[in-house]
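thought: fold this chain, then report.
action: predict
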Amino acid sequence: MIGFEKSGDLWTITLDRPEKANSLTSEMLTELVARVTEARSAKCLVLTGNGKVFSAGADLDEARAGLATSPLWEQLSSAVAALDCLTITALNGTLAGGACGMALASDLRISVPTAKVFYPVMRLGFLPQSSDVKRLTRLVGPARAKLILMGGIKVGAQEALGMGLVDRVTDDLWASVEEIAEAALGAAPDHIAAIKAMINAA
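observation:
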């Protein structure tokens, strides 16, 4: 249910449960944490999904059994944020719920035009991960963070681009990933890490 591919220094992790809208189970989250941690030796890591949806968030049955409040979500987003390489979330479709964490923790978010982003914690009665709230607010500002988390709106790709929630909207997702990753793939790992650290400290 988690695909993994290395193409030189470009590593790709794919959520591969399209029959369930790539909803995440505890087993999948555990594997994601391990795969992302392993990507410390990559120059660029891409997170994407198989099918028409990036991820619907937590598997509903497991969410009701406690997955919605599992520390695994925070472990995953923390693992993404800790990487020194360039990290890109390539949204092949809609991004929802707890799956937002890994996207928010990525350096860049690229989206197909049909994708939507929503985080329905108000309706579901769960609190969002605290780091998700901080990252979302840094990206879009407090009012728009409230619009998403408290208003529960579904943000279309173009609106998300205008907010700064995604960084590019494209019909050719992989071509855009390759274009953005090219410079990092040609650089030394410590050079990538140094530039990323300077930006994060700014």
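thought: worth noting. The beta strands are 2-7, 10-15, 44-49, 53-55, 86-91, 94-96, 108-111, 116-118, 155-156, 168-169.
final: tokens above.
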